[in-house]
Amino acid sequence: MPQIDAAAQTQAWLDTLSPEEIARAVAYTQGGHWLLLWGALVSIAVAWIMIRTGVLTGLRRRIEGSRPRPKRASLVVGVVYLALTWLLTLPWSVFANWWREKQYGLTQQPFVGWLSEAALSATISTLFGGLLIVGLYFIIRRTGRAWWAWGAGLVTVFLTIVLVVTPMFIEPLFNTYTSAPDGPVRQAVVELAEQTGTPSDKIYIYDGSRQSDRYTANVSGLFGTARIAMSDTMFAQGADLPEVRAVVGHEMGHYVHMHSLWMLGVFALSAAVAFWLTDRLFRPAQRLLGADRVQGIADPAGLPVLAAIGAVLGLLFTPVGTTLTRLIEADADQFSLTHAQEPDGLAKALIKTAEYRAPSPSVLEETIFYDHPSVENRIRRAMEWKARQQAAGSAPLSDEHAAG
Ligand SMILES: [Zn+2]
Q1: For residue 289, how far is its CA from the centre of ligand 1 (angstroms)?
Q2: Do the domain assignments include residue 93?
Q3: Closest CA to 226 of 247, 206, 251
Q4: pLDDT at position 400, please?
Q5: Mean pLDDT score, 190-208
Q6: Which residues cross the membrane (predicted)?
Q7: CA of 291 to the centre of ligand 1 (A)
Q8: Mean pLDDT, residues 178-187 taken together
Q9: Residue 231 φ/ψ, nearest 5 degrees
């Protein structure tokens, strides 16, 4: 039996993409990196407009009148702030999240459909966000200098609740989830579930093609509500059984290794660091933005100042966040290889994600921007795994899929 050449097989997979497809993926992906920067600038510009117009400071003055009503002020100012920010940012969102996706052939959603879903999700975030803002300002008023630590605790508890309720109350507003219909796909998924100790009644197919043509699957929820969902785009793009096993194996890796919990822990730490920095940066940022009518960090009319700081910190911390998710994604791939044992199925699926993640970025680009390891690196690891299996004598003998 000839020795498997992992490098050559990786290249063979990458060669199934045409130069045009690769050029398009590179343009889409690298344009996306710039969107991060422009998006942060848009957030700062919107914050600046809110400060200049004095709409929030005026609102707070009117609510408080002659006596302080801090809870009511933070609720009303918070909700108005979130709604206005959404409106002012809307042209940018239309461009970045709908028009650009359409240009690259990644969505078929009509504009009206996109807009009504965007409005629905903005309404949900304004309601949740308004409550969070009230809690956060309560903490800032009550806990003084240590607010950043308490605040990090609050946002973490809040995110935990949101994660738990998402599959029950939020996702059904946007998509229909059904358990996989009887047939070979269901059978493959159930077998794999039994083997990995994942509850097989937690695996769904949803109509993801409504919003996006991206070939994708995910895990959502937390604790009892966690579930794995495959977008119908997988099947529209002809996913075969090895592919389904490889993809579901990857998602089971996220599920079994409880990656959401790890990420929640990382989120808590980052929130503490971000709030601590925000506490130190508030005064200089306030001066820089000319927000002299804001009465300090406990004033909800200072929300745009917090948002501007958040935009800058978000940009600076991008490589930390992406590096952590890359580690988790690599772990899920490893889980898939170990349990589903479908290196070529995994490669075939990964090639289909290359249209929205250029497959072969430079090391620097991957480190800073990629929230998944590059397709090239992921396929190489799969091919190396296959070569090791063969060397150990337990190989899946055929490599008939290798040519794609
Ligand atoms: Zn993943």
Answers
A1: 39
A2: yes
A3: 251
A4: 47
A5: 87
A6: 35-55, 75-99, 119-140, 147-170, 260-277, 297-317
A7: 42
A8: 84
A9: -70, 145
* Contact partners, residue 205, CB within 8 Å, separation at least 6: 177, 178, 179, 180, 229, 230, 231, 232, 235
383 alpha-carbon distance from chain centroid:
27
Give residue for tokens 């609510």: 63
User: Is there a contact between 13 and 404 (Cβ–Cβ < 8 Å)?
Assistant: yes
Taking only the tens place, the pLDDT of each residue in 310-333 is 999 999 999 999 999 999 999 999
Q: 144 alpha carbon to ligand 1 midpoint, in Å?
A: 40
User: Which parts of 2-146 fold into alpha helices (H)?
Assistant: 6-14, 19-53, 55-64, 70-93, 100-103, 111-143
Query: How far apart are the CA of 130 and the centre of ligand 1, in A?
Result: 31
Burial degree of 134 (CB within 10 A; 0-12, 13-18, 19+): buried
Summarize pLDDT for 15-27 with one digit per residue, the tens: 999 999 999 999 9
Distance 148 CA to ligand 1 centre (A): 31
Determine the structural domain holding residue 125 and report its residue range: 32-146+276-317
Distance CA(71)–CA(279), nearest Å, equals 21
Domain assignment present for residue 302? The answer is yes
Q: Is residue 52 part of a domain?
A: yes
Q: Which DSSP state fits 2? A: P
Q: How far is the CA of 8 from the centre of ligand 1 (A)?
A: 25
Q: What is the mean pLDDT of the chain?
A: 91
Q: Rounded to the nearest whole angstrom, what is the distance from the C-alpha of residue 323 to the centroid of ligand 1?
A: 13
CA of 260 to the centre of ligand 1 (A): 11
In angstroms, what is the span from residue 218 Cα to ligand 1's centroid? 7
Q: How far is the CA of 63 from the centre of ligand 1 (A)?
A: 47
Q: Could you give the angle at which helices 70-93 and 19-53 cross, rounded to 10 degrees?
A: 140
Instruction: Using alpha carbons, select from 215, 228, 260, 176 the residue that is nearest to residue 340.
Output: 228
pLDDT at 404 over 50: no
Q: Compute the distance from residue 329 Cα to the ligand 1 centre, in Å.
A: 5
The alpha carbon of 387 and the centre of ligand 1 are apart by a number of angstroms equal to: 23
**How many structural domains does the chain have?**
1
What is the 240 CA–ligand 1 centroid distance (Å)? Answer: 19
Q: Is 289 exposed, middle or buried (0-12, 13-18, 19+ CB in 10 A)?
A: buried
Tell me, yes or no, whether 389 lies in a domain: no
* Residue that the structure tokens 């407009």 belong to: 49
